[in-house]
């Protein structure tokens, strides 16, 4: 008999007892004697018996599976969040199913339906840059626990785990001011995402607090936040009659593109233009000069999101008391901005 074919009925027949007695013995039921429990468990181990998880889940209406929707798997920040989610989920006995939207709203809706069809117990989400309509997530939240991370919206009354983007941007801008920068530009993320709006707000408020003018010519959109967009945005800044002497970028990839444009223009970093990114991607410490950046606690964010979701799975009342947990960022100063 193949081990994969061993059932409770097989164990019962071999031992000459009822299947219900075998089932209760395997589940350590108090009505079953220690002797019978030992006999059943010894035989189960000998025959490599494995419980039918699918059948158990159908009876309990649970799959012990958590769904996760993210914009990009290859993105360094999201990959660190995944590590945190998996660490907590697996320790708690949950498996994790991931879907990548590639920043597409249409794909996000399809992924959500696909995960629900897999009967996930709960869902952790960082929605796409295209997402303006949240009806699909509103429907999810009526059925199972839903936790947002990194990107948030007031459209959903669910728990949210975010970083302090405003404070991170303020630290980055203040650092550039402390390095004697007088004309600080910003390559800005999309305003429809809280992370983009908050980083821009932190930049602008810090300039004002230091009695510096917010020059709209120095704020350029970098909504995709990729290397090419950062490169072309930096070129436009360099073409201004009075170019900036420092740039705060919405992420490290845009900063890397800006660095390329600055170098091709024959300028020195940070002597001519200081540069700060956001996210602390792995490459930020490998490029020359090394990039000053705002580090986000991705692993901690993943852990926090998974812990909250699992807590809501265990206690339904917690779903009626959603939280907003804010994690702190950290400014890592490297050569790209340090003038003194």
TrEMBL record:
Record key words, sorted: DNA-binding, Transcription, Transcription regulation
Pfam families: LacI, Peripla_BP_1
PROSITE patterns found in the cross-reference section: HTH_LACI_2
Membrane-spanning segments: none
Domain annotation HTH lacI-type: ranges: 6-60
InterPro entries, alphabetized: HTH_LacI (IPR000843), Lambda_DNA-bd_dom_sf (IPR010982), Peripla_BP/Lac1_sug-bd_dom (IPR001761), Peripla_BP_I (IPR028082)
Top-rank lineage group of the source organism: Bacteria
Signal peptide: none
Protein name: Transcriptional regulator, LacI family
